[in-house]
Amino acid sequence: MTMRMLRRRLISLARLVLVALVVLYALFPFYWAVVSSLKTGPALFDVALLPLHPSFDNYVAVFRDQPFARNILNSFVVALSTVALALALALTAAYALGRVAFRGRSLLLIVVLGVSMFPQVAVLSGLFDLIRALGLYNNLMALTFSYLIFTVPFTTWILTTFIRDLPRDLEEAAIVDGATPWITLTRVFLPLMGPAMAATGMLAFMVAWNEFLFALTFTLTNDMRTVPVAIALITGASQYELPWGKIMAASVTVTAPLVILVLVFQRRIVSGLMAGAIKG
């Protein structure tokens, strides 16, 4: 075996070890949450990698002691409506920013992206007054409306990058055939933007699904809360009891839909992200 072959094998082995460490680092917290959710009582404080006596009591207690199923439904409604509105607004804005030539286009795109850089707490008080004035307090529409503040900017940025690099021959051919800008966008560009739409939609869904501060501020009753707030407000049998098992069971329950969505749309998500990386 030559030194070059030995060096290649050592490099391959080092890459394999590095990938294994990254996977372990990323997946071990979720694995430990699953294991902890199957433990009750003093067993929660054991360091065993597998529960000796697995129990689903924590999962039953989560849905029995609070309207957790309603909280999951609320999160789905808010996340899906946020994704739908964010993609609709971002798609039209991206077409204008990527294809229509006008003065200040680059500056406007930077301003749109800069809006998402403001911390949530900086706009919380003003947004709270606006939500109250619109009569949307303790309403799911308040969450959808507020989540657009930080989902529309980055979806617009990603879709603008993708639309900007689509072949101009397609647009010119559509114009020759008498297509309006709306038909060009929906009939010509949109079928080619499946991966980009899937990637940006999935990112927006995860942001809306995991958001906590606005959901805590703009909802008041248990039947209007989303899952992050519901998990934060889980309590034990007494004020001195920490319900780690129930919290872990709830966390696993709300993480499972995200894992399923990523597995279902993984090819489109990867294609969209790779296309954005190459085109950008």
Secondary structure: elements and pairs:
Elements: H1 3-37, H2 57-65, H3 68-99, H4 105-115, H5 120-133, H6 140-164, H7 168-176, H8 181-189, H9 194-210, H10 213-218, H11 227-232, H12 244-264, H13 266-279
Helix pairs in contact: 1-12, 2-12, 3-6, 3-9, 4-6, 6-9, 7-8, 9-13
Oligomer: single chain
Q: What's the shape? A: flat
- CATH top level of the largest domain? Mainly Alpha
- List low-confidence stretches: 276-280
Bin the helical content.
over 70%
Helix-strand category: mainly alpha
**Tally of helical runs:** 13
* CATH-defined fold name of the largest domain: MetI-like fold
Number of domains: 2
**CATH architectural label of the largest domain:** Orthogonal Bundle
Instruction: Tell me the name of the CATH homologous superfamily of the largest domain.
Output: MetI-like
Distance between the termini: 43 Å
Instruction: Report on the biggest sheet.
Output: none
Order of helices and strands: HHHHHHHHHHHHH
Strand content: under 5%
Number of E strands: 0
> What number is the mean pLDDT?
84
The radius of gyration computed from the alpha-carbon positions, rounded to a whole number of angstroms, is: 24 Å
